[in-house]
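ok trying this again, last paste got cut off
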Amino acid sequence: MKTKNHIWNFVRIGGVNRVSLNSGSDLQHLSELDQKLWTALSCPVNGLEIEPKTLQLIDTDEDGKIRVPEILKAVSWTLSLIKDPDHLLLRSQSMPLSVINDASEEGKLLKASARQILRNLGKEGQEELSVAETSDVHTIFANTKFNGDGVITEASADDENDKALIRAVMATVGNVPDLSGADGVNMEMLARFGEECTALHDRYRYAEENMAEVSPFGDRTDEAFALFSRLKPKIDDYFLRCRLAVFDPESAEMLNKLSDRIQLINHRNLSECITEIESYPLAKIQAGNKLKWGEAINPAWAQLVLEFRNLVAGGHKSLAKEINEDDWSEISRKFAAYDQWKVRTEGALAEPLGIDWVRDYLASDGSERLISLIEKDKTFEGETQNIFLVDKLVRYYSNLFTLLNNFITFSDFYAPERKSIFQAGTLFFDQRSCDLCIRVSDMGKHNQLAGKSGICLVYCECVSKKKGDRMTIVAAFTDGDVDNLEVGRNALFYDNQGDDWDATIVKVIENPISIRQAFWTPYRKMSKLISKQIEKFASSQDEKVNTSASTGIEKAGDQTIQKAVQGPGGSEAQGKPAPFDIAKFAGIFAAIGLAFAAIGAVLTQILTGFLNLTWWKMPLVLLGVLLLISGPSMILAWLKLRKRNLAMVLDANGWAINARTTINIAFGATLTNLAKLPGGAKLDPRDPFRKKRSPLYTLLIVLIIAVVLYLLWNFGVFQSASSSGNGVIE
């Protein structure tokens, strides 16, 4: 029972005071916890590493987001149906039936439904249920004739006529799946089937009531209409030619002239030229504007014309031998009414059943029998709903506390032995494994927000041939360095099910990774700058040499040609080279010498001062120099690393984070694991491919050291240090 004096326990994680959910009592009083103390206020339903149906059930408004009121409602409903709220903290994947609170009416019904599920699964006597078992809906309802979903199948009917009728409905208007997985029909489909049958019946009744107009040639009207449709273009063409011949009598000969066209096929087997012959006029143009059925008819059409005459001229002696254009217009008018009736589509879906079958169905009580079966099925709706509520309870029992720990406290994220529900797997790259990998749902929002997180983020396109799927992830690199993080490089991603995905880097957001990296950053920048300048200088010098060589060759060629043209008596001045200005070069060499002398003097003074120090001060000076160079970079990195905030990345994915989710240096080191040799491993340091140094190289180093010591001795460095009387150098 709730009291307002509940004592909450808090821990400080990630720089924020977060509530600890340590008992069922905490869950009972969750509605009393100030929302300002919740780490998240909403999270997306999709893209999280938690049983997805659980999140869909909690999302009661089906907007794709889970918010605080929906969380509280789910917790309240679950606690009302279990005896001991502490059981939720176990995160067990199976729910014992004994935890159901059967003291309430709802609990009693759900416990009975849970046992019914086990019986339907063939596990009667088992005393616990898992999510996998309650999810197996088809098996649960496989042997049920009625299951409350308003869908009946052939198994729902005992009478063979009803089974046949159900098959007819499905063949006509389609089907819907029953909870058992079998195909069936519901009330809406049965109503649509009745509408189709009624429409077909009305269409045929209209034809029967208007037989003279719709079927002018009786039972053979359809056959006659098929011939009429084929012959109409040719007969229309014939009478148009006749009118043209009346208009211009001299054109009749031209209209009947086919010799040129026949000559083109004369050398061929005419039986193979039917297509060409069909394109000729139907008959020879004759005076009187009449078509004689059996005279001068195109042989390719003669048989069809005779068949058509037999169908339409029966009982009409005047049409037996010939027809004129008026007769043809009357025949066309008769077929027009039939054509209009035939193109009507009312009841077209039921037409394959046949009009006789449809009439028998409408006259019988078949529709009422199926309706009664559907209504009987709906009487089991309450029992079915209870079965679904058992599934909901088992899902909440197994997964609700996990959601709370990743919504209210983020304790799973900060616990070394667990992973949060937004961690999609592990990315392996550059001798590192990154455990903080998150699915990217909206790249546009990530472009806006993720860069402000202060985390070094690497975006990868992942493809799985096994699953036939692809996705985008963002991995947080929180240890090591950034030297090899380049767009286009390949990596390997393992999801939480252990399946591997090919990953390709598509974007990198650079931020400090570690203090170690910050220490070497100035030297790396200096090295890159020097390398770049050397490459630039070498490139420019190479270009100068090439240009000078080309110019010299061109000048030499020009001079040779000029000498050949001028002959022996040519100008002597042009052939003389410019005199060597020794004073100019002496000045240059003097300037270079002074520069080297100045640099050498400065270095000598520095080295002299360093050697004048006592021995224990020398390493301190070296350390001070290193700190002077690397210190600012390390301090800046330390400040940034302490402020890395995952909230920006999660917000870009649709979360509403209510508190800082910082990743400090110590915690970051646990999220990215560097390659280490296993314990007890033996290492052979000899590298057969290491570049071997020549003895001359070692000799040169020794010679340089000897020269430096000699010069220092001549400058009196060692004598001054010895005479200082400090007893350090003797």
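PB: full thing came through this time. The chain has 27 helices and 18 strands.
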